[in-house]
Every structure is written in C-alpha cells, then in structure tokens.
Amino acid sequence: MKVAVIDINGKETGRKADLSDAVFGIEPNDHAVYLDVKQYLANQRQGTHKAKERAEIAGSTRKIKKQKGTGTARAGSIKSPIFKGGGRIFGPRPRSYSFKLNKNLKRLARRSALSIKANDKAITVIEDFTFDTVKTKNFTAVLKSLGLENKKSLFVLAESNKNVYLSSRNLKSSEVITSSELSTYKILNANNVVLLESSLKGIETNLSK
C-alpha cells in the first residue's frame, strides 16, 4: 500500500511510503482486538476498592436483645449487615484485574487495528520533524496544518523526542508515543494515526515477528 508522505505544513513531499500489507492490509480479527482492548482497560484499574465486612467492624459483641418474646426477628450482633453501621455482605476486596494474553494474539490485534485505520484512510505519514524548544503552539500549528486541530490524534515516533512530547502534553486530544508503545486501544481511540516516516520500520519489525 502506497501512501503519500507530507511535511508538517501539510504539503506533499513527492515521496511515497510503502505500508506493508502484512501489517496494514490484513483482514481484521475482531475478537483479538476485543481481547487486547479489554486487557488494556483492565490494566488501568487500580483494584484498591475495599469495604468492611462483618468481622472487620468495630463494635460491641454483646447480644443486643433477648432471643424470644420481643415480637421481632432475633438479632445477635450490632455488626450484622442488616443494621445501619454494620458490615457489608460480600463487599469488594483489593484485587488485580489484569490477565495474560498470548504475544502473537496481541500482535494480531495491533495489525488488525492498523488495518482498520488504513481501510478508513485514517493513517497519515509525515516526514520526521522536531522542535528546537518546548512550545505547545508549535505542536498546535502542526495539527492545524494537518487538519487535526479538532480531532483525536495519535503521533507515532521512531524514538523518544522530549521537545515534541512535551509540546503536545497539554493537548488532551493529541498523544505522542514511540512505535514500541503502540497499543490496540490507542490506535482505535484516535480519529487519525500520524506515523512519522522513520517509525514505519520499527512498527513493521515489531508486528511482523
């Protein structure tokens, strides 16, 4: 698949990038995509929720009223879940929501996500760029040139670039990552995926294993 390479001003450079069909042109596997996104979201959960159960409530252990003759149901403890201030029945406990996935399945999911974006013509390839200083307006100017100022965008670099990353950090609708940080969720969550020319080799190498 051939895609025109443009510069940060939105103009064509005259070059074309070759997107591998093995990564950007496969038949998407919806179930693999579902599992990879599910794992990503599960890993974001802290799992620190906790409610006190009956045995953890501080309070008297005496029997609060006699067993018979009151005309009401018997009750043996003020810490019972049926009373205000009592413990919670089967309350949440700290736990990990993470689960494992096969590496090949995760690669398939990411290839599927990139293929979906490529099929929707939501992938843009631009030539490599950097900024001399950290300025949000520099990154905003790039977004405007590419017509992405009002859209969610994901910029994929070949390697970490501090100035580009910090210039984008204040913008909620844009995210800058390296090719090794690419995930199915981030690809699908963006309206447009912007690939720097030098990142293509890393993406194809990582996802073709």
UniProtKB/TrEMBL annotation:
GO terms for cellular component: ribonucleoprotein complex; ribosome. Keywords: Ribonucleoprotein, Ribosomal protein, RNA-binding, rRNA-binding. The keyword Ribonucleoprotein applies. GO terms for biological process: translation. The keyword Ribonucleoprotein applies. Pfam families: Ribosomal_L4. GO terms for molecular function: rRNA binding; structural constituent of ribosome. Residues 45-77 are annotated as: Disordered. Part of the 50S ribosomal subunit. Belongs to the universal ribosomal protein uL4 family. Forms part of the polypeptide exit tunnel. HAMAP family: Ribosomal_uL4_B. This is Large ribosomal subunit protein uL4. It comes from Aquimarina atlantica. The lineage of its organism: Bacteria, Pseudomonadati, Bacteroidota, Flavobacteriia, Flavobacteriales. The gene is rplD.
